[in-house]
């Protein structure tokens, strides 16, 4: 069912404060994702923030049209970011570091030795520094924000679809009323147009009129022939 632009129902308008909270969370998450060097995630949050701002302006009149696409976009991002975040919450965050140990040159051949160290820390760690904990907050905010966006978008779509009448049904009713009105008024209007009343005697069929004219013509010819013989 294609949704038309217009003011949404009152049940959707009552959730406007949640839309402002969503917009603020998208902006905060976009800034925090930069600390994770997640350029794609920050761009996604920025685009969704712009789309959310467009949906809630002018009395949310664009929400019936774009609520479903917005909810689907947030739902896809929820699946993409919730699984890694859940794994890190359960098993901690792992960090890998590569450090050079030594280098050897022999006959223009350079050999370098590196060590790879991997450490696992809790998702939130006071001793890891402010940046580490901000990154953890950014990882946690992303799926939560997408969950709120998916809920608001899908809820708005289904609420509008449930409380708005079906468009094809409305068109059929309008067409029926129009055709009924024309049918009921066609005979009286035509009668008044030709100066007669609706209750006047019915006009004889066209076939009977033609037969009457043919019989009159034959009688006239016979009468003319009889006068010629006389």
Question: Which tags fit this structure?
Answer:
230 residues, mainly alpha, two-stranded antiparallel sheet, single chain, elongated
Describe the model.
The structure is a single chain. The chain is mainly alpha-helical and 230 residues long. It contains 7 helices and 2 strands. It has helices spanning 10-13, 16-35, 39-56, 63-91, 130-163, 167-193, 206-229; strands at 93-106, 109-121. It has a two-stranded antiparallel sheet. Helix 2 packs antiparallel against helix 3 (39-56) and helix 3 runs antiparallel to helix 4 (63-91). The N and C termini lie far apart (86 Å).
Question: Can you lay out the helices and strands and say which pair or pack?
Answer:
Blueprint: H1 10-13, H2 16-35, H3 39-56, H4 63-91, E1 93-106, E2 109-121, H5 130-163, H6 167-193, H7 206-229
Structure, briefly:
This protein has 230 residues and is mainly alpha-helical. The chain has helices at residues 10-13, 16-35, 39-56, 63-91, 130-163, 167-193, 206-229, and strands spanning 93-106, 109-121.
Instruction: Tell me the fraction of residues in β-strands, as a range.
Output: 5-15%
- What is the mean predicted local confidence, pLDDT? 75
**Termini, distance in Å?**
86 Å
Class by SSE composition: mainly alpha
Quick one: biggest sheet? 2 strands, antiparallel
Please state the oligomeric state of the protein chains shown. single chain
Portion of residues within helices:
55-70%
Count of distinct strands: 2
The 3D shape can be described as elongated
If strands are numbered along the chain, what order do they take across the biggest sheet? 1-2
Enumerate the spans where pLDDT stays under 50 for 5 or more consecutive residues: 166-202
